[in-house]
């Protein structure tokens, strides 16, 4: 445990940030799960709406320091490729 006041404050801030980042990443994972479930049952319309939700959440999360913009773009690209392969089939 830190003894200096500024170090104590830093620990409090880190704890809050960690919880916030964890919550944001969990939202992304849950939305990706629902998208992948729609892909699994081969429901194109549901998959498209879920993909839009995933993109929205990824854009919001990548605008913060939780996730880098390129990471979000890479995830969106890979999910879009899976959606397009379902549409082609």
What does this entry look like structurally?
With 89 residues, the chain is mostly helical. The chain has a single domain (5-88), classed as Up-down Bundle (Methane Monooxygenase Hydroxylase, Chain G, domain 1). The protein has three helices and no strands. It has helices spanning 5-40, 44-62, 69-88. The longest helix has 36 residues, at 5-40. The relative contact order is 0.12.
How many strands in all? 0
The average pLDDT value, as a whole number, equals: 97
Structural class: mainly alpha
CATH topology: Methane Monooxygenase Hydroxylase, Chain G, domain 1
Shape: elongated
User: First CA to last CA: what distance?
Assistant: 58 Å
Beta content: under 5%
The biggest sheet, with number of strands, parallel, antiparallel or mixed sense and barrel status, is:
none
Radius of gyration: 18 Å
Number of helices: 3
CATH class: Mainly Alpha
The CATH level-2 architecture is identified as: Up-down Bundle
H and E string: HHH
How many structural domains? 1
Task: For this entry, give a set of tags.
Methane Monooxygenase Hydroxylase, Chain G, domain 1, elongated, mainly alpha, 89 residues
Please specify the SSE layout and strand pairing.
Elements: H1 5-40, H2 44-62, H3 69-88
Outline of the structure:
This protein has 89 residues and is mainly α. Helices cover 84% and strands 0% of the residues. The protein has helices at 5-40, 44-62, 69-88.
